[in-house]
Design goal:
Four copies of one chain form a homotetramer. Chain A has about 350 residues and is an alpha/beta fold. The first copy, chain A, folds into two domains: about 180 residues, Rossmann fold; about 140 residues, Phosphofructokinase domain (Rossmann fold, 3-Layer(aba) Sandwich). In chain A, the strands form two sheets. The first copy, chain A, has a seven-stranded mixed sheet, with helices on both faces. In chain A, α1 crosses α9 and α5 packs across α6. Chains in contact: A-B, A-C, B-D, C-D. The interface between A and C is large, with 52 and 52 residues. Chains A, B, C, D: This is Pyrophosphate--fructose 6-phosphate 1-phosphotransferase.
């Protein structure tokens, strides 16, 4: 039997480890062979493939990114998308698909499985860790590690100049990276998308920190927002492409803090460094196990399912259920971190 | 109310993060004050204390080791131990104790709580991750990270010289560090204490690896043993202090592999580097949360309990139950890794 | 004899190592005692001091930043600045000063030594490595290391999405960080302040890179500029505070590359993470030796001099000479890197 | 013109960067093509080659080890060695050789160039940094970095248990790694092969360190030796293979320190982790430049020469001269570090 593998959406450390795990076990234990589809759903849509065997996956475990390439292509928005995919799967004699990706990629897998008899197994991937039904997604631990190391470095600069340093981390809809790296890095303020912040309260925490002669670090998720009416975006407050990423809430915060507290404030936007490079040991372990269990699901003919982490176990859940709602930071969990604010 | 804190057993990255979490929350939210007992149970036994307040815990989050010092002192083997501890707690007006440690340290806490009305809350600490009732203990992720980085480095040396490299990692009774770092580092053989290995089979895996022109990495837990009769320790096979650590199973393996396969083999014993230094982001997050929840348990008067990680939640369990049995690697989990052997 | 120590200008990994080296040797071998002046020249100006002895310098070797704090205060622009400094040195019975800083800080030291009989020894500090008379300044190697690790991480993201990634590194007037991290990170384009670049040529290199199915990384120093007339800053091309740092040449490049080549381009601005955190081993070694040799110069009464690295030797040079001209990247050295462009 | 490249001796981070630099510049600027000889001098001796072009060197810059493999084969000890090499060079139409290696590999290159008209250019490689005529060799900075990070980690364990930690680093004949990592890691004792140490003095330093309540770290080069008559190796003081590496001076020191001071002492032998893995930014920069300048030397027909670092310049020196004498640690430089002992 031949199994197709594709990776969709933004890249994430651990994708190659998933691919390797599935190919190693599928080949050695089940006697399957594999075909790689290039650039997410565009691959099966356009019949764009890469060879995928044990030789192809040698040495990729520690490598970030994905050897299959990625894209955000959605076959359901392409003319005749489903039929073209089914034709290509037939052409390449692919009898099962492993789709590794986030909400969009897995959403396509759900519909192809459920409505169009395309046998798919899903592997959840979101660096933001905001997917339901799994305790963690791979890539998240690496991103938190990169952010924490950056915060460690920024502390010394903040102390030396008695300056506020704002660190903008990833997280448009969920504050997991901000919460974990903020706690691990000893941040004095952590701001997440799940809860509108009050800029006055933030400045209060900052001033109380200076009172004990320590310089504050503010960790803010890119999707965090102040209370209504507090954020007045000047016409020129987006940069030349309207990138929010590069002139967003982090920049706005530093400006507001400077004008309200009179303290110097600087922003660092970590950006893509959070999602590239070699995966952490935890992410390699998790991604490898996801790969092993995904091919087991294929072997069991258990399609329409996604692998997930529960405690230390890998389980299977219906993809549909997993992608139904975003996993956001629970208010009680966020409140726990509050003891470190100010 | 005054709370005493102590750390016992071998040091472990994250101990300071636990202390900081408990002191920050206890002081700010519950209005407690704290006293640190030096060097584990020896502290309350001998009335040896250190000041412990918010100033004392500033900046310790990223620091490995423990600001309180540690020891393996067991008051139950000391003359009049329990009475002396109770006297010192009274003398310092300590009404509750947070004991951070492994089986031995927590075992003492259980008996003091259960049999002698000393109100104790436990925080589990074992770098080997072999304590029941918690998914993970802090320090483990850091140790796995250090071991994985070493394995990454050793791969290139192995390949350049087509040589076998044996990496001996911590784990006397449980193979968690070997299993996780071996999987994350792409080892070709992983040997754990839970299952006696067959040296012939190990050499078979090594030879099959060389057949595809790749040089093998063998990760072995210090407590792993070959099948009965296979390991013949020469009189001179322990070093000048009889340290197993420095002339143990890793050395024996390299020697056997050389003589059985004719391939050059070298051993690296990672030793103490696995347990020192700054904690990983995951361990800082886990240890900080353990500290916050330990002081909550004190606040609730919920003594004789230990904090534990279940999935992403911190829960409380009876210390006695948690220390009752060693958490070892499940055979099925170990079998999962087998696909990568050879 | 009592020696004063101060650190001026932007913080830099290794400042604490210099302080420790001078205090350890001065105390143990010469029997000096020390006083720390807080926040650069503001310290002696305002008589703001911190205790500085062997206890004060314990454990600071691996810590970034400076335990003395820093500022850009210039006594020559302050009313009565020189007299106030001389009065405070007399008040604290300070007979010699070690000034650790860049052009401005050392410029003050030169004038105080030469024109006002204040015995100063200089220690050069610039993370940009743009100070004449020394092969390297401490902090530079750390900054290059941080930038190189970021470039390593960005490669995988670039490849996975076949996207251009622009990395803006420090270097307003000299391209040393860009050149070294670009070479070490395998960048496909390196742009430095010393040579105006042609945006058309840059896009040509990028397109040739895509032709071989590889995604390009562009490393650009914050001070790099295109040829006259090529850079047209839109009204909206500065962010809400007109920070060049966050909407500077890196942002402009990504925008131009997108519009000229039709390829997706993203910018990462590394910012303050390059100058904070623990120093690299090389920087700890260099900074420690600078500290040891600075106190030797004080002992020899060799004032008005600065310590410098020549090959593997630490030498002394007149401060004036060292700060006379900026050390920029030699065109021949930049040309060497050209073989990797495109 | 076709150029052959080989790497000999122990592996070292940066070998691949040298190869890449030479191949990129040779191909693009001089129109050469290349052939890789496998496993050092064994390659040309046995006519064992690997393809070496721009595609072959893509992505190898950050990879440790050597894509060409290595060996310690010496053609002058092989029957008919020189003739066989000349025949194979003729067979593969190789008109010049770039030999990357240490004393032995370069010694062969000297004789082949000088006595047998084989046009060779040398690139110095020794992780121990003990080669004359160059300020640094690539790989050394990486090794020092790995050792320093290990020392950082061991400090916290030492402090937590008030225990002596002995770290044995590489360096059979020269103490460069011990000196640099010891200084950078804040060691309290540094022992090098160049100077016999007095075990009594070492124990004195250790005791004085404990007096101020700090736990000592001893960094010892594997080749360091105590004064005559002090080191009495018990029969059981070598391990089961008589590996000095695993039961050498580090083990002996810990034992002596325990028996003489009564303090607990532990040894960590860093071993192969020092020479594997990704090169530091400094080593990538140095190795890349060595590759670029080596191919320039070939282009200039400047054979029998070796590239070398002097300050920040790459120069050429006669190989013979460079390998004539070992570069050891100057007593004055070692004395500099003495201020930190005890």
């Amino acid at each position: 039997m031949r199994v197709g593998v594709l990776t969709g959406g933004g890249d994430c450390p651990g994708l190659n480890a998933v691919i390797r795990g599935a190919v190693r076990k599928g080949t050695q234990e089940y006697g399957y062979d594999f075909v790689g589809f290039r650039d997410g759903w565009r691959g099966p849509l356009e019949g764009n493939t890469v060879p995928l065997d044990i030789t192809a996956v040698r040495g990729i475990l520690p490598r970030g990114g994905t050897i299959l390439g990625s894209s955000r292509t959605n076959p359901f928005t392409e003319e005749d998308g489903v039929r073209r995919i089914k034709d290509n799967l037939a052409k390449y004699e692919v009898e099962a698909l492993i789709a590794i990706g986030g909400e969009d990629t897995l959403g396509v897998a759900t519909r192809l499985s459920g409505e169009h008899d395309v046998p798919c197994v899903g592997v959840p991937k979101t660096i933001d860790n905001d997917l339901s039904a799994t305790d963690y997604t791979f890539g998240f631990d690496t991103a938190v590690g990169v952010a924490t190391e950056a915060i460690d470095r920024l502390h010394t600069t903040a102390e030396s100049h008695m300056r506020v340093l704002v660190v903008e981390v990833m997280g448009r809809h969920a504050g997991w990276i901000a919460l974990h790296s903020g706690l691990a890095g000893g941040a004095n303020v952590i701001l997440i998308p799940e809860q509108r912040f009050d800029i006055g309260e933030v400045c209060g925490w900052i001033e109380s920190r200076f009172k004990v002669r320590y310089a504050p670090i503010v960790v803010v998720a890119e999707g965090a927002m102040p209370k209504d009416g507090q954020m007045v975006l000047k016409d020129d407050s987006t940069d030349s492409f309207g990138h929010v990423r590069l002139s967003g809430v982090g920049e706005w915060l530093a400006k507001e803090i400077e004008s309200r507290t009179g303290k110097e404030a600087r922003t660092t936007v970590l950006g893509h460094t959070q999602r590239g490079g070699t995966p952490s040991a935890f992410d390699r372990w998790l991604a490898t196990r996801f790969g092993l269990h995904a091919i087991d699901a294929v072997h069991d003919g258990d399609f329409g399912k996604m692998v997930a982490l529960r405690g230390t176990d890998i389980v299977r859940v219906p993809i549909a259920e997993a992608t139904a709602k975003l996993k956001t930071v629970d208010p009680a969990l966020y409140a726990e971190a509050g003891v470190f604010f100010g």
